[in-house]
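Recap for those who missed Tuesday's class. We walked through two folding examples back to back. For each one, the amino acid string is listed first and its predicted structure tokens come directly after. Nothing is annotated here on purpose, so try labeling regions yourself before you check the end of the notes.
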Amino acid sequence: MTGALLGGRVRHAQAAGGHRTGIEPVLLAASIPARPGERVLEGGTGSGAALLCLAARVPGVAGVGIERDAAAAELAGANVAANHLSNVQIVTGDLAVLAPEGAFDHALANPPWHDAAGTASPDMGKEAAKRAEAGLFALWAWRLAGPLRHRGTLTFVVAAGELPTCLAAFGAAGCGSLSVLPLWPRAGVAAKLVILRGVKGGRAPFRLLPGLVLHEGSGAFTAQADAILRDGAALPL
């Protein structure tokens, strides 16, 4: 199924069934402080939405996306080719065992976060993309932080309820200077998602940021959210 992101700037096809890309990878990509020439690693890249959006915002960035589902990885590779991104590579493999080559300046992920004890989806694609096994956040943080350069950043977008577990996972992976940016559905409504950033070797105090309000009362995106989702603006942490 063909589609587009960032107001049509990014071509992004998805499978007709299975897990569908939401706004999370677009917001995640907007939060990465990458510069041209830097290397970025993504775990669980899916159909490649985050890396595609990041490459559109930061020309010259080099990206590697790891995806264990072969069909999703193939689709991500086709999306990379459709956007003519010779500096983005998709690797089929399991993040738990795959060791990416070289060092990276930034790492990111939109990990599965549904409780492993919850009701399973009958769709295997959705189930694999959303179900979090015990210890997953610690494993992903450790595997993604490993190839980071000193002072490189590790960024997750996760459910707000998983924040305590993810804070501990980042600390265990050697990433400090932690910052949390809540994603408020509407003003005055509790955040369902947060963006968590850590710095490898960082020692600065924890920061809770003002956050981003996604929707107006009418349901339309706020001006700031629309600038990110449609125009490709950055979301600084």
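Example two. Treat it independently of the first, because the proteins are unrelated.
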Amino acid sequence: MSEPAVEIIREGAVAELRLNRPDRGNAMGRELLDAFASGVAALKADLDVRAVVVSGKGRHFCSGADLRDGVQALAADMGGGPVALRRAIRSLYDPFLSILDIEVPTIAAVQGAAIGGGLGLALACDIRISAADARFQANFVRLGIHPGMAVTCLLPHLVGGQRAAELLFTGRPVSGTEAAAIGLVLEAVPAADLPARARALAVEIAAGAPEAVRLTKASLRRAAGLDPRAFADGEALAQAHCAGLPDAVEGVTAWFERRPPTFTGR
């Protein structure tokens, strides 16, 4: 019997929600996404949990959409037109965005790659702790598509509009060290120290009065005035449009062939 796609590890009042498909870079395949949504639902219902660490087993936090599994499925949905494709894209992002529904603080512990939707998952958490050599990348335009997973909402909130524009327009990678310098993560630590540091912060948070912490998180969300799901809906529509263009085919083909894409603006 194969291991679960997502594991929940409980230690006292702290729970770790761990992506568990290291052989695929914890990419966003349907099995992993469904398991993540189920894990979030279980933690949301557990009133004894006071803090949650979101992590990925193996080398990478999450390498983004599982293009090997997802391209054919999305191509089939394109036959139903933009509306069907938008719904398919939202079904890809909604399980990770369900992390927004957890009332207690969430901490992303990021090692290796946090790319595309994986970056979006990290951004959807309340706090991010990173390995110094981690790699954050909003690589959407390099694949010929519009950003998704509410990245256009959450990234500017953290790093400011100008820096977010640069990262989204270029799709360049950012190291954990740089991510800490620009405010994308709270701090960057040696990779070997990451699990302990994330857990120590979660334990410190869990020591606070549970209801006061929950209400404080809710107040911070209201103060930010963010509506990530509304942004994700608009992003999905833009992605559905881009997915029907030749540049998206070129971007994904180039990714598989490990070469720079040649975009034509079509």
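Answers for example two:
The mean pLDDT is 92.
Residues 128 and 185 are 5 Å apart (CA to CA).
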